[in-house]
């Protein structure tokens, strides 16, 4: 987030207020537009928001995340940030726990290498506007880098950062009491994003328990919140004269990186394995 990453990540028509469910999700995700049977019904609301899609991660312990919703990106090529982990599709790195959670586990293998998982909804679930929300207990430790974020649905056809990136939550292990939310786009990316941070109200570690991380995404504005507490808003007037590239579909990403230019690298204080536990991911209309 604060390093020049041609991609951490590897890294539009404006909708009206009367967004329909199908306008929120990509055509390829239309079959997933109704929440799965195990999820909260689509008629449920949170305030003025109506649930239009969710993954509640219900399933037997050790089973794979729902392939109708999630892809696994794999490889150990540093991901533009000199990261150490090899992302796999192994159940050792991503699996349901049988208690309604997805667990992404970063491990150090017997040969000293690191493995983890990076999951995306590309071409499966691609919202355009709405509240994008996940309830997560993040991992901890120096060099551990969990994230819940989004990339423009036209990536990689449109390269980063022109494709746009919305970081809903990032944490680096040396700052256990802080989470960060950012936008990366043309002219404001890498070490120069639109960004802000939220400090735990008691100064405690976010890894101690679950927290709800969200963005309220509307045409021309994005607001970040933690546990319902809004802490920053960026609008199309804040891009320093550069394009606002957030009026298009985006896909969601969950991952735990190990090492990298921004978080630094594991040291003697880092305990592995580390787990990111995800209770749910939900998309609401606004």
From TrEMBL:
Keywords: Hydrolase, Signal. Transmembrane segments: none annotated. It comes from the Bacteria. PROSITE patterns: GH16_2. GO terms for molecular function: hydrolase activity. Residues 33-286 form the GH16 domain. Residues 57-93 are annotated as: Disordered. This is Glycoside hydrolase family 16 protein. It comes from Nocardiopsis codii.
């Amino acid at each position: 987030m604060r390093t020049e990453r041609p991609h951490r990540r590897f890294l539009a028509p404006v909708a009206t207020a009367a967004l329909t469910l199908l306008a929120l999700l990509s055509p390829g995700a239309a079959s997933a537009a109704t929440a799965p049977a195990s999820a909260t019904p689509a008629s449920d609301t949170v305030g003025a928001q109506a649930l239009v899609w969710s993954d509640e991660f219900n399933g037997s312990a050790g089973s794979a995340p729902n392939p109708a919703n999630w892809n696994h990106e794999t490889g150990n090529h540093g991901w533009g940030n000199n990261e150490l982990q090899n992302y796999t599709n192994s159940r050792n790195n991503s699996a349901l726990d049988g208690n309604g959670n997805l667990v992404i586990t970063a491990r150090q293998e017997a040969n000293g290498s690191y493995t983890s998982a990076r999951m995306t909804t590309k071409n499966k679930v691609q919202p355009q506007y709405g509240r994008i929300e996940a309830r997560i207990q993040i991992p901890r430790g120096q060099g551990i880098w969990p994230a819940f974020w989004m990339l423009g649905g036209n990536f990689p056809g449109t390269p980063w950062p022109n494709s746009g990136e919305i970081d809903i939550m990032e944490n680096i292990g040396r700052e256990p009491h802080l989470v960060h939310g950012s936008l990366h786009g043309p002219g404001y990316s890498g070490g120069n994003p639109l960004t802000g941070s939220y400090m735990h109200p008691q100064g405690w570690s976010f890894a101690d328990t679950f927290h709800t991380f969200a963005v309220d995404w509307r045409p021309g504005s994005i607001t970040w919140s933690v546990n319902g507490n809004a802490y920053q808003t960026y609008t199309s007037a804040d891009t320093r004269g550069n394009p606002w590239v957030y009026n298009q579909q985006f896909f969601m990403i969950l991952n735990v990186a190990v090492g990298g230019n921004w978080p630094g690298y594991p040291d003697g204080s880092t305990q592995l394995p580390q787990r990111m536990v995800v209770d749910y991911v939900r998309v609401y209309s606004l």
